[in-house]
Design goal:
The protein is globular and about 65 Å long. Helix 3 packs antiparallel against helix 8 and helix 7 packs across helix 8. It is about 35% helix and about 20% strand. The strands form 2 sheets. It has a 7-stranded parallel sheet. Strands 1-2-3-4 form a 4-stranded antiparallel sheet, with helices on one face. The chain is of the alpha/beta class. The chain has 2 domains: about 55 residues, no CATH class; about 230 residues, Glycoside hydrolase/deacetylase (TIM Barrel, Alpha-Beta Barrel). The structure holds zinc ion. Zinc ion binds next to loops.
């Protein structure tokens, strides 16, 4: 073997080792981006008790770090939480051999959470702005929701900074943010900043699911656009099944992304473009989610009343709404409420 040949072999070996090192570093970086990658994320419906014997409903199951986890809803407060499945009690303490700790449907269906889902699935279906638009009962305050549809614009920095600094030395500012997966992935630093404001107690963000893709075509009518989009002509039943399957995919991927970034999805959902239909509303109810409509879209000149769900866009796509909202934020004695208060009704629940 001559010296040239040896040098060439050594060079190839070095290149190969280099390739392996670079490749393994890329894999490590990918793993570090999502330190607790989630697998098998799936919907379910299961009443359980927590360690304090309080009723919760498991609405998702998933695997993370080789353990089974649950996403839970407190059906009285509408708050979500997550827990290792092994910590949950699956039956009540058995009073006798004849009563092996089963839950009754009655105790679940009378909760504010189930009543709100029934309310949203039983109303006449609208092409646009279906779902809850206003608090069910009389409340003294407003609900601010900020949509983050995919956008190539930077987010509304001045607006978000104002929100985060509005309540110095007191409770965090209550805001619902409708997050689309594509905005999250396209604006990682701005998303990280929002999460930081939440963890540092300046904002209390309720993450509203706004789907993963938020698919939209500028040349299609509303009836065939957003979540009603189907690339193939189908009969009514097949079309309903197709868009229901799409919705489930979209919704679960967006939730999974939030969890992988250490955030907690809520039970609230906003349809892209506020466009839905009967099949989509029914599917959403089966996923345990509550569709949020709007009764004060500021950019359209709608005036908020107490109990109103206000909509602005924080993705840089709708400046007039943000300008109006900035003026509203300067008003004194305005109460901003968490979305869970939407379930307050005249009977005083929750
Ligand atoms: Zn949107």
């Amino acid at each position: 073997m001559n010296l040239m040949k040896v040098n060439r072999i050594v060079l190839f070996q070095l290149l190969f080792i280099g390739f392996l090192l670079i490749n393994s570093r890329q894999q490590t970086q990918a793993a570090n981006t999502y330190p607790g990658s989630i697998t098998n994320y799936r919907p379910t419906f299961l009443p359980v008790l927590d360690q304090q014997e309080r009723l919760h409903l498991v609405i998702r199951l998933f695997n993370q770090n080789r353990e089974l986890h649950a996403l839970l809803v407190d059906p009285y407060s509408l708050a979500t939480s997550r827990a290792k499945f092994s910590t949950l009690k699956l039956r009540k303490s058995a009073a006798s051999k004849n009563l092996p700790g089963y839950f009754s449907w009655k105790e679940i269906e009378d909760t504010p959470y189930m009543r709100l889902i029934r309310h949203c699935t039983s109303t006449p279906n609208l092409l646009q702005n279906d779902g809850i638009k206003h608090a069910l009962g009389s409340v003294n305050g407003f609900f601010l929701t900020v949509d983050m549809c995919p956008s190539s614009n930077p987010f509304e920095k001045e607006f978000f900074h104002k929100l985060a600094n509005l309540m110095p030395n007191s409770a965090p500012f209550e805001v619902g943010i409708s997050m689309s997966g594509l905005w999250m992935l396209g604006h990682p630093q701005e998303f990280a900043w929002l999460c930081e404001q939440h963890s540092q107690g300046r904002l209390r963000i309720t993450w509203i699911n706004h789907t993963f893709r938020h698919l939209y075509f500028k040349d299609l009518p509303l009836e065939k656009n957003f979540m009603r989009f189907n690339p193939i002509m189908m009969d009514t039943l097949a079309n309903s099944l197709f868009i229901e399957a799409s919705l489930q995919d979209e919704e679960l991927i967006a939730e999974q992304l939030l969890l992988e970034h250490g955030q907690l999805p809520s039970v609230f959902f906003r349809f892209p473009g506020l466009v839905s239909d009967k099949a989509l509303i029914r599917c959403l109810g089966n996923l345990g989610l509550i569709p949020l409509g709007v009764d004060a879209w500021l950019a359209k000149g709608e005036i908020p009343q107490p109990g109103s769900i206000i909509l602005v866009h924080g993705n840089g796509n709708e400046k007039p709404g943000i300008t109006k909202m900035m003026a509203w934020l300067d008003k004194k004695d305005v109460r901003w409420l968490p979305l869970s208060y939407l379930a307050h009704d005249r009977k005083g629940f929750p």
